[in-house]
Design brief:
Strands 1-2 form a two-stranded antiparallel ribbon. It contains 6 helices and 2 strands, in the order ββαααααα. It is globular. The longest helix has 21 residues, at 139-159. By secondary structure, it is mainly α.
Length: 160
């Protein structure tokens, strides 16, 4: 869940909440309408658009019943950035598995996306810690990265 403080002065303690699944839908809509002679365009944009629209599918079921912090930020919903590391990996696995049901190319793109998130966007985002998730390196994360790397090889073959 994406959580932003409400900027309205009458409601200073409220938040604007955007479910990751709604973010998926909006991103997919934008991707489906992107046409620019300045930027590379895939030969067949359909699967790319589907992958963009599914990139947070793993979060959908959890966000129908959002978690609430019971510790330092009591009462505040758990966001994409504050969900536990184990929960993050679980949701990413679900998303990749769901995408595999659609097409191997969609699953490949989503797998590459979630690995990038856990690898600090492969250090290509100049904003410091913009994509950094607190659990930099844990045995569970390293196992997830290894699993996804192996799966990506398989998905590349299947997508050809």
């Amino acid at each position: 869940m994406i959580i932003c403080p409400n900027a309205h002065p009458d409601y200073p303690d409220d938040w604007m909440l955007v479910k990751q699944s709604d973010h998926d839908d909006h991103s997919g809509y934008i991707a489906s309408h992107m046409v620019s002679p300045r930027y590379w365009q895939p030969t067949d944009k359909r699967l790319l658009t589907v992958a963009v629209a599914m990139h947070d599918t793993g979060s959908a079921s959890d966000e129908d019943h959002p978690l609430i912090h019971m510790d330092g930020e009591v009462g505040k919903p758990v966001s994409f950035w504050t969900v536990s590391p184990d929960e993050h990996l679980k949701l990413h696995r679900i998303g990749v598995k769901e995408a595999q049901q659609v097409h191997p190319y969609c699953a490949l793109l989503i797998s590459m996306h979630v690995v990038g998130i856990h690898r600090d966007r492969l250090h290509i985002d100049p904003a410091p810690n913009r994509w950094h998730i607190p659990h930099v390196s844990t045995p569970a994360l390293e196992a997830f990265i290894a699993e996804q790397t192996t799966l990506q090889v398989q998905l590349r073959r299947e997508a050809e």
